[in-house]
Write a structure and sequence with these properties.
Blueprint (H helix, E strand, L loop, with lengths): L1 H10 L7 E2 L8 E3 L4 E6 L5 E6 L2 E6 L5 E6 L5 E9 L3 E17 L1 H4 L8 H5 L4 E8 L17 E3 L9 H14 L3 E7 L11 H6 L4 H37 L22 H7 L9 E5 L8 H19 L6 E4 L14 H11 L6 E4 L15 H16 L10 E8 L2 E7 L5 E2 L6 E4 L5 E3 L1 E5 L2 E5 L8 E4 L9 E2 L9 E2 L12
Parallel strand pairs: 2-8, 8-11, 8-12, 9-11, 12-13, 13-14
Antiparallel strand pairs: 1-3, 3-6, 4-5, 4-7, 7-8, 9-10, 15-16, 16-21, 17-23, 18-19, 18-22, 20-21, 22-24
Helix pairs in contact: 4-10, 8-9
Length: 503
């Protein structure tokens, strides 16, 4: 009888404990003022009771063992415990309720405090228990994931140095102005294109973006054979390299591995591996700094970037949450000052402001011509925070530099009007303006500020029809408003972009 009972017990399915998803943990910050989704896993059909302070919600695990409960909104608070209980009980302690932002993009958003200007000052600051940090590990995936291995931590001399300098500056500004806990979730990977962060649905549905997906499907289909070729080339390279060393000659260049399933440029790969596990964690919004890796395909980016934002918002299901982004700084890719690929990428970013609840921090005055990673990250974070404080929280203050609104022809001149003008000023000579006639050939223009407008003329263009400003990879930053925020570059011309053919 005992043997039979033992066999029956061994044959019975193992019980799955109630678990919270990995984004929940001790020391986390939950978003105030909105419904709070809480989810995890348990046995199929198991009833789960979730409590946080005086908020209670029930859930039932589905056929895959997944459950989700939604707690009613809370105001800012501290010292709470989130509990999920079924046949067992799990909890997250020292929970705070405040403002939560996802901080994402490529290397300039990933750039850590310890490698930025003001690192020593940051290292000397005491721990802030109301500023909490979470770093999502790098991960590429072909399918949306639900978990990751990371823990929340308070901002301290131990945790701050390796954290995003821009995100930290942004968070400190919010903490100072709002006086509530702030949670920053860093999900970044240097050198990655926007398509890696975009849900597959958006890439599939748009004819401009579909070639990206098709290219990656081709790469993945060819990957096994390409790896065989790479391994053969690597073996030959090792022999040639050894021979070159023995003869005192330069080593030949090593072969590059083919792009495969784990490549960080994989279409939707970082969305699946790093952003999807956060969904639908309640957030206030997102800050974003990326575009360098898409500059050669800037025309396509004008479609891709808005679709990425829409894709995130669809997935989160909490409406058109604020999405604040950084326009590319001044830089000379390949040392070329006269190129325009970065100007076109900046224009794609500017046009993305047509989406509701977006804002852009202009940085063409604080870049470094010879370094793609300018070190003044604190100012970038501050400029992002201006939009968060003004547009999200209703605090007074100028939150943007001048943004081109409209232009009109007045004789041989064009009069340009701007949003966020607020006392237009020039820093040095008012350089960077160009005008074009019907032939669409642009010529340098003389510009002068006239109240809240700018008048531009050129003796080469008696009848102007188009104008542009700061249209270069590394343009002069000449036009500012009274809050010392620079004007965005722009063009009024709808002619073909140099990057239009790139897919």
């Amino acid at each position: 009888m005992r043997t039979l009972l033992a066999c029956l017990l061994l044959a019975a399915p193992a019980s799955a404990d109630v678990r919270l998803a990995s984004v929940f943990g001790d020391g986390m910050v939950l978003q105030r003022g909105v419904p709070i989704p809480v989810w995890g896993t348990a046995d199929t059909g198991e009833e789960v009771r979730v409590t946080l302070g005086d908020r209670v919600a029930q859930a039932k695990a589905d056929s895959e063992g997944r459950w989700k409960a939604t707690l009613e909104p809370l105001e800012a608070g501290r010292g709470l415990e989130l509990v999920a209980a079924g046949r067992n009980r799990v909890s997250s302690r020292d929970v705070r309720v405040g403002e939560v932002w996802v901080c994402s993009g490529q290397s300039n958003m990933e750039w850590p405090v310890e490698r930025s200007a003001g690192a020593e000052e940051e290292a000397a600051r005491p721990a802030d228990p109301d500023l909490r940090l979470l770093v999502v590990p790098h991960r590429v995936s072909g399918e949306p994931q639900r978990e990751f291995d990371a823990r929340w931590a308070e901002a301290s001399p131990k945790t701050v140095p390796a954290f995003s300098a821009i995100a930290l500056a942004f968070g400190r500004e919010l903490r100072s102005s709002l006086g509530v806990p702030v949670g920053l979730i860093q999900a970044t990977w240097g050198g990655t294109p926007a398509e890696s962060w975009t849900p597959r649905r958006g890439l599939e549905a748009d004819e401009v973006l579909r070639p990206i997906l098709e290219r990656w499907e081709k790469n993945l289909a060819e990957f096994p054979e390409a790896m065989k070729t790479f391994e053969e080339q690597t073996a030959l390279w090792k022999e040639a390299s050894s021979k070159a060393k023995g003869e005192g000659k330069p080593e030949p260049r090593a072969p590059a591995p083919p792009p495969g399933p784990d490549h960080p440029h994989r279409a939707s790969g970082l969305w699946n591996g790093m952003i999807a596990p956060l969904v639908p964690f309640a957030i206030r919004g997102a800050i974003w700094y990326q575009g360098e890796s898409n500059a050669s395909r800037a025309w396509q980016y004008a479609t891709l970037f808005p679709e990425m934002i829409r894709g995130w918002r669809r997935a989160w299901g909490q409406g058109e949450f604020p999405f604040l982004f950084v326009q590319l700084a001044n830089f000379r890719p390949g040392g070329k000052a006269d190129g325009v690929t970065w100007a076109e990428l900046r224009e794609a970013q500017r046009r993305t402001l047509s989406l509701p609840h977006t804002a852009m921090a202009v940085t063409i005055d604080i870049g470094e011509s010879g370094d793609i990673h300018p070190r003044n990250k604190k100012e970038v974070g501050r400029r992002l925070s201006l939009a968060a404080k003004s547009r999200v929280h209703g605090l007074e203050g100028v939150d943007s530099g001048p943004l081109f609104r409209s232009g009109s022809v007045e004789g041989n001149a064009m009069r340009l009007r701007f949003d966020h003008a607020g006392g237009l000023v020039a820093k040095g000579d008012l350089l960077g303006f160009e005008v074009a006639g019907e032939d669409r050939r642009f010529h340098p223009a003389q510009a002068r500020i006239d109240g809240e407008t700018v008048l531009v003329t050129s003796p080469e263009v008696p009848r102007p029809v188009a104008t542009r400003y700061a249209w270069a990879n590394d343009p002069p930053a000449a036009l500012f408003n009274g809050a010392a925020l620079p004007a965005s570059s722009f063009t009024t011309d709808d002619g073909p972009w140099q990057t239009a053919a790139a897919r």
